[in-house]
């Protein structure tokens, strides 16, 4: 019996021994868990890099969804080549809340904001690290947060204002804030950030947010709110830095070998390659069906400049366009590519290459096999000059305003505007300049016109298909400013959201 | 540290076994009565070699001499040589035996029709069916043999009530989705697979670069399977606790039997082809309709298509990419054994070509099972199996570039080797010639699985046993994808790409159980307690390289060094458990069972690591009562009921903590004058410290009966299965900006249904067995955590959600607008309601009558879940001929035929130009003829005829299929009497999917997906083939 007793004892012990909690407490092999992160500056830097990374999405600041699909296709100066449903909805001003482009832009903005919120909240509480370094990290995150909120408030109006990290237990039924509150947050973030950041970065840090970038975005924010005195003040504060200037040659602003030049206040950084560190700008601009030796891999010519936009350029007596910007950024029938002289647009451009006959070459500079490395400009010095000019003009300093406009015109090889123009004529001239200066950039298109309530008049005057747009049957175009619908997917998950007037979910 | 303890345990066990051996010898001496020569010992087994306990052994005069114990062993006294013993037990044909000496008797009893009292494998043991109180369905090897299928999942499809199996692809070796009693969760919903007691991962195997999935369970050769048990209710499954919420499938492989030596060769060959081919526009029709589309849109037409009639029929691209595909299979199995050692060895080889070109699957399997009786008290055993699967797959379920999708879209005006070279405005510039594409893409799989276990079992004293086993499961999975540098018309791949992915996994399990069985008087008691621990590690690396010096040498080394990118990661999972179960029965009449499992899983945070999963059940064998007349119409009758709780931890790891990704593409950024890549980090998923088990609570009520002299059999069950704290990645507000949603316990889902299996069999020379099974299913979401509905994944290239889940309706139903017809004129259009519509567009229904087309007009359009699934199995044999017919069907389910998005509009959905379309588009609306089924052909779809999910896409998914037809002939026994070699020879011919009745307009109504939120969505699923086979089975 002793044997049985012993055996029992052994097995009982064995069963009890079995497993303790440390066997069940694992750490992930491929990710960091919260407790192990934000311990030192290198973690904080990595998290900040992650915030920058959110800019690279096509739906964020990569000059695709914003610049092409929304800004320039809605204003109508670029034409959507595919007939793809979501693009046509924007191009034709139908704007249903199910539009996936608007949804993706909305959601990409909040992904950037979410990452910025984590960095801002976590780095403050970090014990390790120099105060100055931590402040600079927080300031950069605040700029990017402000950049995304600027996007949201100008497209959708007041949106849910989230400035703290959220987790699974947070109340995620978040109602919209007022547009004023969002603008206030943008101003606060940028005012704090501009004082903490250097005027320039060097070496491996080139491409980061500078104090100048903060001032430039503040400039845009003030301009949208028509705080013209603030626009003038912040512009002049930026000029005092003497870091940024107009480049003499328009094309060189965009060239891949001349990135982060003195005209660029902020641009999203890309590197050519197979991964998402590159972008699709070349594929989207190069002509579909053209020989691969010039385009590289894929070429989709998703958007092409429209004839009426080309016609709006100033011409000489013989009818030749004198605006250098056209010759630096566009090729039309029978014209040679600026950098690849062996490539000439045929006299009869195949419809698949471009319905209008024109192709934009700002970003298509060379054959590109995979993703292109050309940076996506977000704010340029030319815009600051024109914003400054607009504010001066609104404060009845019209002559000073025209001087600023002429700086931009000089570079384009255009004659100076007379200083005698009226206030209204000057405003029109500023808008004309924006239209010719910023084609396929996130500024100069729909949002600009919308900001000043000029959109409907503009398309009536300029878009040849205006009658077929049935603007009168689209009440959402009658508001000031015109707001996009809150995406249905957002409402699907957050029922606290209210829709903008005249739209349904 | 942990590992050391286990090694020590094992060593101790073996040391102990030695002591036990010695002790056993003494004990035996002590227990053996003096009068050994007057006693007779014997063992009663069923025809599968499994012991039968409780068999009454009686003398010729009816005097009871004893009953068999749990091992089927009896020892009786007072008999003499020349006496006849009779053996009886319910459910078995009574047997008689003449005593010719006092050596140990071996008695084989065969079960009656309907297997009322077969021995059934349950978790951690076996049980007789008459004693069972839970719900377990069994499929025996004899059933599997009737359907020559690559994987057992397809062989049991339609055989078991309550189990819905859908092949998710018709690709060779193709995957399936197995659901037991409905879907109770939006998360992991596939059952737990246990092979010979070892829970293994059964997830489908993906071919890198392809959408073709291989059935994860095809690692088991069906030829090696002795039986499959499906544990359906909580009483049966709760012994597997935390992983049992979706049911458990136990696979028992064939083992060697004492005294039976056999060698069997099974070979078959056959071919497969499409059973149905929906029509697409021919060249003339396509050119005509393309021109019409451009004209309707006031656009220039393509001059190349000016004369549609000049094209004639053109190329049928479905014919070009599909083929009649051969298949071969050879299995060899050897079994043998004596009292001491028993072996079963098998080898198998299968080669299956796919009906779609450039797809195939080859499988090599091997298995060795060994059992060793060391002493009366000590047994050892083990098994080792391997499977090596090679496959070639294609990317199919991809609207834009899938081979099958392309074949439906490509231009009938072009020939087989033609590429698109016309005006890029009229062609889809990213589309590719499907034939040339399939020829150039190479996606290979090399999957090795090596798994097995070893156990030792020691009988401490009579009825008390200790068993210890270890299992190992090793996985090596290699995926290679290759695409050469090509320029095919508008399609170009500017650099050759080679991608090599290597995955390695190791899964180990240790189990220790102590069991006790005792029969005294009319009481029968069995107890088991145990402890298990399991750990799973998995790692992969992948390298993608581009630009090759010489494209015939396809190794990473020959690629351009600057064009190589590597990625890789790993994961881990541990589970620790305690388990216990007690079964008690009195007089075979009153049956009780209770079990509990306590599981700890690494997937959960510190406060919720452990969960308890209890079950209780009871049964009453009414027919054992004295008042029951077993000779009447009903011969046996049992009622049973059970309740229990099961768990589900399939949520992925570390949901309890926020996780940050490091160095992924979405985290990194470029900075600096020299464009340096800076490694970044970003939160992947916010943590939920409250995350815990999903619990499924089940009630089950069942009746088992035999009737009409044992020829008829019936099992009927009703169940209610409630999932609480459903694990779900809740769709969080977009404003939260989470990259992926946190896991939360949100929601409650109820599945309930009725299951019936009824059959009748009998006969002598002409034998027959006909059975029908059917199950109903009602699925309802009772509550959802945050209250907001859950949208299923967005279908690629569309803005349509594959499903919707909300309270009061089935999980993952289809939701959208109702199409009321087509506007016949512009005047008919209500511009307030559909501002962008014009004549020829769909007219949607204003459900709430507010004259605004909004979310409130989206309604339930259908559900992917069949209300009724059924099967009918007919086995007939006459003399040497045998015939099997197996019908299977579903009804009451719908299919979201999202493939129409690409095969109806003619306008290319992914860019400019047009593509080919279904011949149904000939019925389009035109201003001359009107029409109410297909909208007007237009270049832009402002009304969202195709962009909106509507009733246009939803079709009835019911079908009835003759899944199997087999006719066999066994050569008369007499033929082989003079040869020592051949024992048995059967030839057969078999046809699978011979016919299918369905209203569905696509290629095949059998659409499955393991994701419950994307079930029943046909986006170009590789269609099921019809298979013709001829086979021969030889026994030596």
Automatic annotation (TrEMBL), chain A:
<dbReference type="InterPro" id="IPR012944">
    <property type="entry name" value="SusD_RagB_dom"/>
</dbReference>
<keyword id="KW-0732">Signal</keyword>
<protein>
    <submittedName>
        <fullName>RagB/SusD family nutrient uptake outer membrane protein</fullName>
    </submittedName>
</protein>
<dbReference type="InterPro" id="IPR033985">
    <property type="entry name" value="SusD-like_N"/>
</dbReference>
<dbReference type="InterPro" id="IPR011990">
    <property type="entry name" value="TPR-like_helical_dom_sf"/>
</dbReference>
<feature type="domain" description="RagB/SusD">
    <location>
        <begin position="263"/>
        <end position="503"/>
    </location>
</feature>
<comment type="similarity">
    <text>Belongs to the SusD family.</text>
</comment>
<dbReference type="Pfam" id="PF14322">
    <property type="entry name" value="SusD-like_3"/>
</dbReference>
<feature type="domain" description="SusD-like N-terminal">
    <location>
        <begin position="22"/>
        <end position="223"/>
    </location>
</feature>
<keyword id="KW-0998">Cell outer membrane</keyword>
<dbReference type="Pfam" id="PF07980">
    <property type="entry name" value="SusD_RagB"/>
</dbReference>
<feature type="signal peptide">
    <location>
        <begin position="1"/>
        <end position="18"/>
    </location>
</feature>
<keyword id="KW-0472">Membrane</keyword>
From TrEMBL, chain B:
<keyword id="KW-0675">Receptor</keyword>
<keyword id="KW-1134">Transmembrane beta strand</keyword>
<keyword id="KW-0732">Signal</keyword>
<dbReference type="InterPro" id="IPR023997">
    <property type="entry name" value="TonB-dep_OMP_SusC/RagA_CS"/>
</dbReference>
<dbReference type="InterPro" id="IPR000531">
    <property type="entry name" value="Beta-barrel_TonB"/>
</dbReference>
<dbReference type="InterPro" id="IPR037066">
    <property type="entry name" value="Plug_dom_sf"/>
</dbReference>
<dbReference type="InterPro" id="IPR008969">
    <property type="entry name" value="CarboxyPept-like_regulatory"/>
</dbReference>
<dbReference type="Pfam" id="PF07715">
    <property type="entry name" value="Plug"/>
</dbReference>
<dbReference type="InterPro" id="IPR012910">
    <property type="entry name" value="Plug_dom"/>
</dbReference>
<comment type="similarity">
    <text>Belongs to the TonB-dependent receptor family.</text>
</comment>
<keyword id="KW-0998">Cell outer membrane</keyword>
<dbReference type="InterPro" id="IPR023996">
    <property type="entry name" value="TonB-dep_OMP_SusC/RagA"/>
</dbReference>
<keyword id="KW-0798">TonB box</keyword>
<dbReference type="InterPro" id="IPR036942">
    <property type="entry name" value="Beta-barrel_TonB_sf"/>
</dbReference>
<dbReference type="Pfam" id="PF13715">
    <property type="entry name" value="CarbopepD_reg_2"/>
</dbReference>
<dbReference type="Pfam" id="PF00593">
    <property type="entry name" value="TonB_dep_Rec_b-barrel"/>
</dbReference>
<feature type="domain" description="TonB-dependent receptor-like beta-barrel">
    <location>
        <begin position="415"/>
        <end position="994"/>
    </location>
</feature>
<protein>
    <submittedName>
        <fullName>TonB-dependent receptor</fullName>
    </submittedName>
</protein>
<dbReference type="InterPro" id="IPR039426">
    <property type="entry name" value="TonB-dep_rcpt-like"/>
</dbReference>
<keyword id="KW-0812">Transmembrane</keyword>
<feature type="domain" description="TonB-dependent receptor plug">
    <location>
        <begin position="130"/>
        <end position="248"/>
    </location>
</feature>
<feature type="signal peptide">
    <location>
        <begin position="1"/>
        <end position="22"/>
    </location>
</feature>
């Amino acid at each position: 019996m002793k044997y049985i007793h012993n055996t029992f004892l052994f097995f009982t012990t064995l069963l009890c021994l079995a497993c303790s909690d440390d066997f069940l407490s694992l750490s992930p092999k491929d990710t960091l868990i919260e407790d192990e992160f934000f311990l030192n500056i290198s973690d904080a830097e990595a998290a900040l890099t992650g915030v920058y990374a959110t800019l690279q999405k096509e739906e964020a600041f990569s000059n695709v969804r914003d610049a092409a699909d929304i800004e320039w296709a809605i204003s109508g100066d670029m034409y959507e080549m595919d007939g793809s449903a979501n693009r046509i909805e924007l191009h034709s001003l139908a704007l249903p809340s199910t539009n996936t482009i608007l949804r993706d832009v909305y959601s990409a903005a909040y992904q950037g904001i979410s990452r910025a919120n984590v960095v801002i909240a976590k780095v403050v509480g970090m014990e390790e690290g120099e105060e100055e370094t931590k402040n600079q990290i927080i300031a950069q995150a605040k700029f990017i947060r402000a950049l995304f909120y600027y996007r949201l408030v100008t497209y959708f109006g007041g949106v849910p204002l989230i400035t703290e990290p959220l987790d699974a237990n947070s109340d995620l039924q978040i109602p919209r804030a007022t547009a004023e509150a969002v603008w206030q947050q943008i101003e606060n973030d940028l005012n704090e950030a501009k004082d903490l950041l250097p005027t320039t970065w060097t070496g491996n840090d080139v491409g980061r947010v500078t104090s100048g970038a903060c001032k430039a975005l503040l400039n845009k924010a003030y301009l949208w709110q028509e705080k013209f005195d603030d626009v003038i003040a912040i512009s002049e504060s930026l000029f005092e830095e003497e870091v940024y200037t107009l480049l003499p040659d328009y094309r060189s602003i965009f060239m891949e070998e001349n990135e982060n030049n003195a005209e660029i206040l902020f641009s999203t950084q890309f590197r050519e390659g197979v991964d998402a560190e590159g972008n699709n700008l070349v594929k989207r601009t190069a002509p579909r069906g053209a020989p691969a030796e010039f385009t590289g891999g894929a070429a989709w010519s998703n958007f092409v400049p429209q004839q009426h936009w080309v016609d709006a350029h100033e011409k000489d007596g013989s009818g030749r366009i004198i605006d250098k910007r056209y010759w630096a950024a566009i090729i039309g029938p029978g014209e040679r590519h600026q950098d690849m002289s062996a490539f000439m647009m045929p006299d009869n451009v195949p419809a698949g290459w471009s319905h209008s006959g024109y192709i934009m070459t700002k970003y298509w500079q060379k054959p590109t096999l995979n993703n292109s490395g050309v940076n996506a400009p977000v704010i340029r010095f030319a815009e600051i000059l024109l914003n400054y000019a607009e504010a001066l003009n609104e404060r009845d300093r019209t002559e000073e305003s025209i001087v600023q406009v002429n700086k931009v015109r000089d570079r384009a090889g255009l004659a100076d505007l007379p200083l005698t123009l009226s206030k209204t004529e000057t405003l029109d001239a500023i808008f004309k300049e924006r239209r010719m200066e910023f084609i396929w950039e996130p500024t100069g298109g729909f949002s600009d016109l919308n900001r000043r309530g000029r959109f409907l008049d503009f398309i009536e005057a300029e878009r040849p298909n205006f009658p077929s747009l049935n603007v009168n049957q689209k009440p959402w175009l009658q508001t000031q400013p015109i707001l996009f619908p809150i995406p249905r997917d957002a409402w699907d998950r957050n029922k606290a959201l209210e829709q903008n007037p005249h739209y349904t979910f | 540290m942990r590992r050391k303890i286990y090694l020590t345990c094992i060593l101790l066990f073996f040391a102990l076994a030695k002591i036990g051996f010695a002790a056993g010898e003494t004990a035996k001496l002590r227990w053996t009565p003096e009068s050994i020569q007057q006693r007779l010992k014997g063992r009663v087994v069923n025809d599968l070699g499994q012991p039968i306990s409780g068999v009454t052994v009686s003398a010729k005069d009816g005097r009871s001499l004893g009953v068999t114990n749990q091992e089927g062993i009896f020892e009786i006294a007072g008999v003499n040589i020349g006496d006849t013993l009779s053996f009886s037990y319910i459910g078995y044909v009574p047997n008689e035996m003449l005593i010719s000496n006092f050596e140990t008797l071996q008695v084989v009893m065969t079960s009656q029709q309907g297997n009322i009292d077969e021995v059934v494998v349950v978790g951690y043991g076996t049980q007789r069916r008459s004693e069972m109180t839970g719900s377990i369905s069994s499929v025996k090897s004899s059933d599997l043999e009737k359907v020559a299928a690559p994987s057992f999942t397809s062989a049991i499809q339609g055989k078991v009530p309550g189990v819905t199996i859908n092949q998710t692809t018709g690709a060779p070796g193709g995957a399936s989705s197995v659901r037991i009693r409905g879907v109770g969760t939006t998360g992991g919903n596939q059952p737990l697979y246990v092979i010979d007691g070892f829970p293994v991962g059964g997830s489908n195997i993906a071919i890198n670069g392809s959408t073709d999935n291989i059935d994860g369970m095809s690692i088991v050769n069906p030829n090696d399977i002795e039986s499959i048990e499906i544990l359906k209710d909580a009483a049966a499954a709760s012994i597997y606790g935390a992983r049992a919420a979706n049911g458990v499938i136990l696979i028992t492989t064939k083992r060697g039997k004492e005294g039976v030596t056999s060698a069997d060769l099974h070979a078959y060959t056959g071919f497969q082809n499409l059973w149905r081919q929906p029509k697409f526009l021919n060249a003339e029709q396509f050119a005509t309709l393309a021109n019409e589309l451009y004209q309707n849109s006031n656009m220039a037409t393509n001059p190349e298509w000016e004369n549609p009639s000049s094209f004639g029929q053109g190329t049928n691209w479905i014919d070009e990419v599909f083929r009649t595909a051969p298949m071969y299979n050879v299995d060899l199995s050897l079994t043998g054994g004596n009292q001491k050692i028993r072996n079963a060895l098998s080898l198998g080889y299968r080669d299956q070509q796919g009906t779609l070109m450039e797809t195939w699957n080859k499988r090599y399997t091997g298995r060795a099972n060994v059992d060793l009786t060391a002493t009366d008290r000590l047994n050892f055993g083990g098994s080792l199996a391997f499977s090596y699967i090679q496959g070639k797959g294609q990317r199919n379920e991809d609207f834009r570039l899938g081979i099958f999708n392309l074949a439906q879209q490509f231009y009938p005006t072009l020939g087989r080797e033609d590429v698109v070279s016309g005006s890029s405005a009229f062609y889809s510039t990213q589309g590719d010639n499907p034939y040339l594409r399939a020829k150039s893409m190479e996606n290979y799989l090399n999957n090795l699985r090596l798994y097995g276990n070893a156990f030792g079992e020691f009988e401490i004293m009579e009825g008390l046993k200790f068993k210890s086993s270890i299992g190992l499961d090793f996985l090596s999975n290699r995926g290679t994808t290759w695409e050469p540098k090509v320029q095919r018309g508008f399609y170009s791949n500017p650099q050759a790409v080679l991608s090599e992915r290597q995955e390695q996994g190791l899964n180990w399990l240790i189990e220790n159980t102590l069991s006790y069985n005792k029969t005294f008087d009319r009481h029968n008691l069995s107890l088991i307690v145990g402890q298990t621990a399991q750990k799973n590690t998995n790692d992969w690396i992948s390298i993608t390289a581009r630009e090759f010096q010489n494209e015939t040498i396809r190794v990473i080394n020959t690629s351009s060094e600057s064009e190589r990118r590597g990625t890789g990661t790993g994961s881990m999972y541990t589970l620790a458990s305690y388990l216990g179960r007690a079964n008690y029965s009195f007089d075979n009449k009153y049956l009780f069972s209770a079990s509990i499992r306590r599981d700890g899983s690494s997937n959960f945070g510190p406060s919720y690591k452990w969960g308890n999963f209890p079950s209780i059940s009871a049964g009453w064998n009414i027919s054992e009562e004295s008042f029951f007349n077993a000779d009447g119409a009903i011969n046996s009758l049992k009622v049973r009921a059970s309740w229990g709780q099961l768990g589900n931890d399939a949520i992925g790891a570390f949901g309890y903590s926020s996780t940050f990704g490091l160095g992924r593409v979405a985290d990194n950024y470029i900075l600096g004058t020299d464009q340096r890549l800076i490694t970044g980090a970003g939160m992947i998923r916010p943590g939920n410290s409250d995350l815990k088990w999903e619990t499924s609570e089940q009630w089950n009520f069942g009746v088992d009966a035999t009737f009409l002299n044992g020829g008829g059999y019936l099992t009927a069950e009703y169940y209610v299965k409630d999932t609480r704290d459903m694990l779900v990645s809740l769709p969080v507000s977009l404003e939260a900006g989470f990259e992926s949603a946190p896991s939360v316990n949100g929601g409650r889902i109820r599945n309930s249904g009725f299951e019936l299996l009824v059959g009748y069999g009998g006969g002598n020379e002409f034998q027959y067995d006909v059975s029908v099974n059917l199950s109903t299913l009602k699925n309802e979401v009772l509550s959802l955590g945050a209250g907001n509905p859950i949208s299923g994944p967005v279908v690629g290239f569309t803005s349509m959600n594959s499903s919707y889940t909300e309270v009061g309706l089935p999980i993952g139903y289809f939701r959208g607008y109702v199409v009321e017809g087509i506007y016949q004129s512009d005047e008919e259009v209500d511009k307030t309601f559909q501002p962008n519509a014009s004549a020829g567009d769909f007219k949607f229904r204003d459900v709430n009558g507010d004259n605004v087309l909004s979310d409130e007009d989206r309604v339930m359009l259908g559900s992917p879940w069949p209300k009724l699934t059924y099967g009918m199995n007919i086995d007939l044999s006459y003399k040497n001929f045998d015939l099997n017919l197996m019908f299977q069907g579903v009804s009451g389910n719908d299919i979201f035929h999202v493939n129409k998005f690409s095969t109806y509009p003619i306008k290319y959905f992914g860019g400019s130009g047009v593509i080919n379309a279904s011949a149904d588009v000939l019925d389009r609306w035109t201003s001359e003829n009107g029409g109410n089924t297909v909208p007007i052909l237009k270049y832009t779809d402002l009304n969202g005829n195709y962009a909106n999910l509507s009733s246009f896409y939803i079709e009835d998914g019911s079908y009835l299929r003759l899944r199997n037809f087999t006719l066999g002939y066994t050569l008369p026994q007499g033929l082989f009497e003079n040869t020592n070699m051949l024992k048995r020879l059967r030839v057969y011919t078999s046809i699978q999917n011979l016919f299918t009745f369905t209203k569905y307009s696509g290629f095949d109504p059998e659409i499955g997906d393991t994701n419950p939120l994307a079930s029943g969505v046909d986006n170009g699923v590789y269609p099921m083939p019809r298979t013709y086979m001829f086979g021969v089975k030889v026994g030596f």
